[in-house]
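Justification of resources, computational component.

The compute hours requested in this renewal are based largely on the per-chain cost of generating structure records like the one below. Each record pairs the submitted sequence with a full structure-token output. That output is archived, and it is also reused by downstream analysis tasks.
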Amino acid sequence: MLSGLDVDGLVSSLMSIERQPLANLQSKQSSFNSKLSAFGTLKSAVSTFQTAVKNVSGDALAALTATSSKTETIGVSTVKGSGAAAGNYAIEVSKLAQSDKLVSSGVAPGTTFSAAGSSMAISIGGKTTNLTLTDGSLASLSSAINKANAGVTATVLNDGTSDRLVITGNDTGTANGVSIAASGSLAQFATGAGSTMTKSQTAQNAEMTIDGIAVSKPSNTVTDAIKGVTLNLAQTNVGNPVKIGLAKDNTAVTASINAFVDAYNTLATAVNKQTAYNATTKSAAVLNGDAGARSILTGIRAELGKAVGGAAGLKTLSDIGIAFQRDGTLKLEKPDKLKSALETNFEGVSSLFSATDGVGTRLAKVTEEMLGSKGVFKTRTDGLNATIDGLGKSRDRMELQLAQTEKRYRTQFTALDTSMVNMQSMSSYMTQQLAALAANAGY
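The structure output for this chain reads:
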């Protein structure tokens, strides 16, 4: 600023005008980012609703409570949706499942074994594992067995005077008996005729009767004797049957239905919040007027209102006390109606949600489509991301152009500043010369 010309101020003022289109572009980009975030919020709400729908679809409502008259002897549990049916059973356990446990004869502490000319292979259920051996002690042999992942666990037990190799099968059941082939310095650990290895425990199946029917299973955790039921055998109880009871769990079903209502209301609230228009403040939510956002509730409400065919007398949600409210949410207005339906027509309640055209079945399909690769969220977010990307590229181009414009302005005003300095110098020189001429002429 040699001449008094405010180059920086002039450039700054002009660039604030030049940057206005960029500010508008950035505002647009921010708006589209807000829409993208809003769709993310709605997608999360639909996903949560989808989970609640699954919990009332299929055989998910066929929840049962499982009880055992003596849990310390036989524990019992069911898995939701496993197909378990209500009923009562009497169970007597005569044998618990167990694995093989082999114990060697005593070996003097510090004894070493040579890998040269020695071999060891462990067989379980027709599978044989050959060990990689090295010279070493009984502890080294135990480590080699464990590293081989042969289906056994080896330990060394000291009985006070000598060490013993203990090999225990990892799996219970008759089919999981352990046999060992060994040669050389390890021959004493082979099983079979003349072996010094003794069985302190023999592999066997769990043996029981269920309502008088003999059942044999390889594990004490029995998942396939009674459909959908897990039995955990802990003690034998011959002559003292344990009573197992499976009853419909109306409390769990009611909780699932209430969770379904709550999840829908959370979704409806989220959609309304993102698409609302406030007439008082004349302000619109970020997705106001967005057809994709509005379609979410439209599609779901349509399915909620449809009647179900052949649902054992229960056709609509209102038949179990659920109704739409004025604000578009759902409410279990009549809990006693649901309670009565569960007590007198449990199958009808289940069918209302899980039949081929049931509420849950149809909503599961609708939400799956919404969240799928061709659904509203994928198409809208892809479109928004493409727009945001395009605006970003336009912004980059505009910022480059603005940098060039600023450089041009600064060059022009700097040149003007220099010209003005030169003109001021020339003016001062001319003034001096005129004054000198006047003085010489006697003026």
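The CA atoms of residues 353 and 359 lie 5 Å apart. The first strand starts at residue 64 and ends at 68.
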